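Lab notebook page, bench 4
Experiment: in silico fold of construct C2
Operator: M.H.
Input chain length: 187 residues
Purpose: comparison with the prior construct
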Amino acid sequence: MAIGKRRGGFNAPKDDGIRFRKNEEIRVPNVRVVGEEVESQVMSLREALNLASELGVDLVEISPKADPPVCKLVDYQKHIYQQKRKQKEIKANSVKTVVKEIRFGPNTDEHDYNFKLKHAENFLKEGSKVKAFVFFKGRSIVFKEQGEILLLRFAQDLEELGKVEAMPKLEGKRMIMMLAPKASKKK
């Protein structure tokens, strides 16, 4: 077999999930036809295909679940390009949530606490969520009240920048609390 000719090789078409039925692939007796050059109307599939060929465009099924299905008179490649562009815009505009972790021990001293507090302030200012947790090693689980007090103090020190999403909760050897940034006030 020649290079590039095998299935899934270099020349295989890229499947990006965008697929519409067009022209003869449409298998319903009547369709609602829409387009820039025609007014919306219900007609038989044969009439719609004839109209599409007269205008030199494709009949593309854009809403197959409607009754009757909605078909648009448009160039198929142009329609696919526009759909890809819309998906790309939606993806670019979506907000990606970043979660930063801060780890404490049940007996964290003041200097370490302040150092980690400064990091958490920066994370919240950037718009990231903060997952603060106290990790209990060995028998230090007996200090779980101390760990909860530490996390509540942490939340209180950060209340101007973030709000508590999840109160401290013990999960195995970790006591976890989530903080989310407060909505920034734009002028």
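Observations: Strands lie at 30-35, 41-44, 58-63, 70-74, 99-104, 129-135, 162-171, 174-181. The chain is about 30% helix and 30% strand.
Next step: discuss at group meeting.
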